[in-house]
Amino acid sequence: MRVLLLGANGYLGRYVADRLLADPAVHLTALGRGDDADVRFDLASGSPGALTRFLDAVHPGVVINCAGATRGGARDLTRHNTVAVASVCEALRRSTCNARMVQLGCAAEYGPSQPGSSTAEDAVPRPGGPYGVSKLAASELVLNSGLDAIVLRVFSPVGPGTPAGSPLGRLAEAMRRAMQAGDKELKLSGLGVQRDFVDVRDVARAVHAASLSAAQGIVNIGTGHAVKLRDAAAVLARVAGFGGTLHELDAPQHRHSGLVAPRPSEPVMDHLAAPSPYPDGCGGWQQADVRTARDRLGWRPRINLEESLADIWMEAACRI
Asked: 5: closest CA among 204, 220, 197?
């Protein structure tokens, strides 16, 4: 099976590439902006015609899109997450390869959820920020393209390589700095937020399964269990061997999905600050309904959060 992977150098794309390369039946070609891509091509600025000619030459059976941007202003997010996907869809429609498309979406497309609920694929999307809006627009383009296509809405990916700007990445960095400084108390805020954390290697397995499947439409990829950042912090402290005290600053008006600085009246004692309330636009709670992934892809998560956190910490500890 010939597979064209877009965005192979990104956080998710690297693990998807590893998973596909482990399948002897897959012949993988990576397309991207980096020098280590098999073919250099910028989806946000390249023409659909040029991409069509490449598709006709390579003739993949599956095109997997892991490319996109998670940060930046609305214009950049739209260009990299929406316009780029429009180009891919148009090129696939023009091409003679008749490839199946696997698009990686995200939970931010849903926006905030009711605490205690599980979000199913038929939920009405209400993204709470420009990132979620740009990804939702991309999903709609794919689903209405007339292509053989599936959108995997990935919830909160974690594990080795977790970006330093993500909630758990910031948490690991704060703990690393505290241990390096010999501090016995780590003051954190915003740990009441609950997310459905799914290991990036399990996400790669889901992408592989989707590429082999005939399933179409939207499929959630998560664990089906929301976890408080407070509980994740306690697990991380245990696997890191942090013997100090985790003290959560009382800042309910600033609760969000990262760590926050204390209020101006408080001493600056926490180790890491985060930007704005709920930067992912998902509110205080998100939990996936993962029955569709089980039923249509035969996929279930295998790696628990403690193992994911241990791998995150192993990378952070190397910087001590």
From this structure: 204
DSSP-based three-state secondary structure for 96: coil
Q: Tokens at residue 106, please?
A: 């995200």
pLDDT, tens digit only, all 320 positions of the chain: 999 999 999 999 999 999 999 999 999 999 988 777 888 888 988 899 999 999 999 999 999 999 999 999 999 999 999 999 999 999 999 999 999 999 999 999 999 999 999 999 999 999 999 999 999 999 999 999 999 999 999 999 999 999 888 889 989 999 999 999 999 999 888 789 999 999 999 999 999 999 999 999 999 999 999 999 999 999 999 999 999 998 887 555 444 434 433 333 333 334 443 334 467 889 999 999 999 999 999 999 999 999 999 999 998 887 65
Token pair 């910031």 is at which residue?
170
| Joined tokens for residue 267 | 């001493």
Residue type, 189: S
Q: What angle do CA 67, 162, 199 make, to 5 degrees?
A: 85
Structural tokens at position 219: 């499929």
Element (H, E) at 236: helix 229-240
CA–chain centroid gap for 186, Å, is 27
| CA atoms in the 13 A half-sphere facing the CB of 59 | 2
Say if CB 67 and CB 103 are below 8 A apart: no
CB contact at 8 A, 285 and 114: yes
Look at phi and psi of residue 118 and say left if phi exceeds 0, alpha if psi is from -120 to 50, else beta: beta
- Amino acid 22 reads A
pTM for this predicted structure: 0.90
DSSP string across 115-174: TT--B-TTSPP---SHHHHHHHHHHHHHHTSSSSEEEEEE-EEESTT--TTSHHHHHHHH
CB atoms under 10 Å from CB of 258, counted, come to 26
Radius of gyration of the chain (CA): 20
Please give the angle made by the CA atoms of 210, 225 and 8, to the nearest 5 degrees: 35
The helix or strand, by DSSP H or E, that contains position 181, with its residue range, turns out to be helix 167-181
